[in-house]
Amino acid sequence: MKKNIFGYIIPLLLTIIFSGCFNSGGNIIKEIHIGLHNNNQLKIQIDVLTDEPVDAYAEYWTGNDSTNTMRSTTVKNATQHSLVLCNISPKTNYAYRIITIDNGVKKVSKTYTFKSHDLPLWLQEQFKAINTFPKLIPQQFKDGLILLNKNYAPGTAFLVDYKGQLRWYHTVDGMAYKVVHYTKDKTILALLGTNDDPTSYGRQILEVNLLGDTILNLKKGQGDFTQIIHHEILKNDKGQLVTLSVDKKIMDLSSVGGSKQDTVNSDGIIVFDSHAKKIWKWSVFDAVDPLKDPNILKTKKDWTHANSLNYDTDGNYLISFFNTGQIWKVDSKTGKVIWKFGKGGTVAMPAECDFTQAHAVHINQDGNLMFFDNGVKKQQSGVFAMKLNEAKQTSTIDFHIQLPKEVFNGRMGSAYMINDTSLLVCCSKRHILVLADKKGILLWTMEMAMPSYRAEFVRIDQLAPYLKP
């Protein structure tokens, strides 16, 4: 470990170069230091000191193939440049050169080399992929990455390719990644909690970019962030944070055999700005009276158990409840419940749509309501995509797949379309991901060393320029 020219500590991969770098047209670069960025084995940081303020970036490539170059971040109009290289593979030989631009004049350094380290033992052999039908795996899936999380401390968020190779990770000490979400800003937005917090429940919101730098870090107790949040963390179009929260109500349940000062635990939606100021709040208690539930004395400790939140195409909320087996659409401005889908709901369902408990509710690329069916009643999980007619309050099945009973997943889980014919399914409790077609045929599977709350697929265009296939 050695302190570099910018005053912080990084492990060195190469000897620091003090002799300068001779470019065409003159000696601009004085020093180059190279090490790990944020102590991450898949990110390399090159610190460059120049004689005068210039723009600078690094071009780098594996082995001797300089025709397939990648590019670092760019630091503009500075003499101290911290350039971060992503898309690094373990135990691989790399070459790089520094590009400086001064008043439109581009200068290229000579070529240097380094070899990346192996991954730490605790990150090795975390994922094992099996290509059952390799010729049927869509190219979109091969090009993209899968976002996963380890939900016990030290928590880790992972981006993994279809071969089971770890392509990106970010670790937090002392906390667990309870829920992770990839944003349109090319950041990882996460809910963190302690090992003592229940699965998918947390008390800290962390956002990092693909360089591993912290964008946002809010903790319970700051501003209006006073309630435990759980199961979901999203951004809206205004960049505000949208969360599911634990909502408690003290009420008189003596009329049904409870006490006069009883507590009912339910759920709500809270929207925060980036400073933890509350912008909007909604509660299940705003829509339903617990006294109308004949089983409230049995269910009061976790009455509804909301487990996912997303948006309809009109910007209103979709929220799924594990304990009631329903999906609701809620007006994002008024809080009015527009419809309820599921057993006892307002939307008529075909008899074949016999789901019990749902996770990862969302509108898929075809505009249909899609969700993972835990299938608790029949002990067989699956996926539904439903066409809803909101005006008529009716629905039809677009497609339904049933997973093999061997991967029955009674809690957590997700399912998202990859293209028109295939979907990625996460069976969290079974520590397994599957790529299936719409007939339910498994094209690919991946075993995980840990349970992930869900698995989000991130397309190649959402990763550029930081990560490539």
TrEMBL record:
GO MF annotation, one: aryl sulfotransferase activity
Domain of life: Bacteria
Bilayer-spanning residue ranges: none
Keyword Ribosomal protein set for record: no
Annotated keywords: Transferase
Matches recorded under SUPFAM superfamilies: Calcium-dependent phosphotriesterase
Name of one Pfam family that matches: Arylsulfotrans
InterPro entries registered for this protein in UniProt: Arylsulfate_ST (IPR053143), Arylsulfotransferase_bact (IPR010262), WD40/YVTN_repeat-like_dom_sf (IPR015943)
UniProt keyword Transferase present: yes
Official protein name in the record: Arylsulfotransferase (ASST)
Biological source species: Mucilaginibacter mallensis
Lineage: Bacteria, Pseudomonadati, Bacteroidota, Sphingobacteriia, Sphingobacteriales
